[in-house]
Please model this.
Amino acid sequence: MFDLIDECGKELKEYGYSVRAAGRYGISVASLKIETKKQSENLGLKQGQYYIINSPLLHSLGEENEKYLSNIIANKLKLILKGMGIEKQDKILLACLGNFDVEGDRLGKEVFDRVNISTLQADVRVYKFCPNVFIFTGIESAEVVKILVKHLKIKCVIIIDSLTTVALARLGTSFQLSSSGMTPGSGVNRFGRAIDAKDLNAVCVSIGVPFMISSSSLGGQKVGETILVPKDVSQDIARAGRVIAGAINKVVL
Model:
């Protein structure tokens, strides 16, 4: 299974996939809009708008690169929200997913800790929620999110989670945004329940970054394959958390 759309094994250009340079730091922005059911079935991807922002020098460059990348992500997030009819006064829930005890799977927690919501004002508009994984709680994250959406009258859920990739160079450097929601664990074949607009009756936007790669992608055997993370993942995942949280703080708060 795959998480990043351009690793689906299909020729995407005939569906409108395009890539352009962002201007600085070697960053590129890819986009794809899947508009029909037939396109969705052919590609194995849900309908919706997809963006992938690749920042190959993110590990080696400093704060200015992070800010520049964060601004690009903010602009794409703003475009998605506007295209889905989300307005400034609408209530938004940040669903920050992952296993907090696994370094490569704690992107959601890193973002959760850095998004600065205001809980003391009279009319709270943005909420954040950081559930642990099913294996520890016995509760599907999608089920809890659904309850919160209904109770709080949420119009938009922004889902943050770690992804997988087949390429070492993309670990911690490819940021994918989508209006199609997310299925926790799909990239490692541990499928949770999908968190999407159809199930929640709310707009769903996902933001993910790959921090895991399978041993088979490195030439290992698929039988009993292992999911691997880079040895310096703590710094990388904290950096990605800062970048994404900066974008969210700028757009929705």
